[in-house]
Structures are given as structure tokens and as C-alpha cells.
TrEMBL record:
<dbReference type="InterPro" id="IPR001781">
    <property type="entry name" value="Znf_LIM"/>
</dbReference>
<keyword id="KW-0862">Zinc</keyword>
<dbReference type="GO" id="GO:0046872">
    <property type="term" value="F:metal ion binding"/>
</dbReference>
<keyword id="KW-0963">Cytoplasm</keyword>
<keyword id="KW-0440">LIM domain</keyword>
<comment type="similarity">
    <text>Belongs to the zyxin/ajuba family.</text>
</comment>
<dbReference type="GO" id="GO:0001725">
    <property type="term" value="C:stress fiber"/>
</dbReference>
<feature type="domain" description="LIM zinc-binding">
    <location>
        <begin position="4"/>
        <end position="64"/>
    </location>
</feature>
<dbReference type="GO" id="GO:0005737">
    <property type="term" value="C:cytoplasm"/>
</dbReference>
<dbReference type="GO" id="GO:0098609">
    <property type="term" value="P:cell-cell adhesion"/>
</dbReference>
<keyword id="KW-0677">Repeat</keyword>
<protein>
    <recommendedName>
        <fullName>LIM zinc-binding domain-containing protein</fullName>
    </recommendedName>
</protein>
<keyword id="KW-0965">Cell junction</keyword>
<dbReference type="Pfam" id="PF00412">
    <property type="entry name" value="LIM"/>
</dbReference>
<dbReference type="GO" id="GO:0005925">
    <property type="term" value="C:focal adhesion"/>
</dbReference>
<keyword id="KW-0479">Metal-binding</keyword>
<keyword id="KW-0130">Cell adhesion</keyword>
Length: 98
């Protein structure tokens, strides 16, 4: 059998193959580990354990937490970089720092 197998469901890939992270996937099987949204054609990232995340969930999971409001410090919508204040080894949103 020469058909490649999907690295998620292990079933043969009969039609379009999505290749990412050195593996083959059915397009509908290539999803974020947190929100399970399809990442076919969407930017994604991989954590140190090799788990695939949409960009938003990666930031939610790994972003530093603000010392005031305890929420993750994430990029503004449409931005790729995060702006934060670091003082006394603590992280703050710009609007939370006093």
C-alpha cells in the first residue's frame, strides 16, 4: 500500500495531503490542540512538545501573565508582537502598570 497515512487519525490519505511539521495530514485533521479549529491554510505554531496551536491559543497558553489583572499579555488584534512592561521581575500590561 503506497498511500500515506494521516499522523492524527492513522487512516490513508486518499485525496489532498497537507504536510506540516514533517508529517502528513488530512486537511480536516490538522487542527489546533486547544480549540480544535482547522489550521488548513492558517498560520500556526508548534510548542516545545511538538503540539500544534493556532497563534491565538499559543499566546493564551504561553504568554506572560500581568501581575495586576492576571490576564495573559497578548499582541493587540492584527499585531504579531506584544508590548509589556517588566519591573521588579514582574510583567504588566501597559494600561495596568501604575
Amino acid at each position: 500500500n503506497t498511500l500515506e497515512q494521516c499522523s492524527v487519525c492513522s487512516k490513508p490519505i486518499m485525496e489532498r495531503i497537507l504536510r506540516a511539521t514533517g508529517k502528513a495530514y488530512h486537511p480536516h485533521c490538522f487542527t489546533c490542540v486547544m480549540c480544535h479549529r482547522s489550521l488548513d491554510g492558517i498560520p500556526f505554531t508548534v510548542d516545545a512538545g511538538g503540539l500544534i496551536h493556532c497563534i491565538e491559543d499559543f499566546h493564551k497558553k504561553f504568554a506572560p501573565r500581568c501581575s495586576v489583572c492576571k490576564e495573559p499579555i497578548m499582541p493587540a488584534p492584527g499585531q504579531e508582537e506584544t508590548v509589556r512592561i517588566v519591573a521588579l521581575d514582574r510583567d504588566f500590561h501597559v494600561h495596568c502598570y501604575r
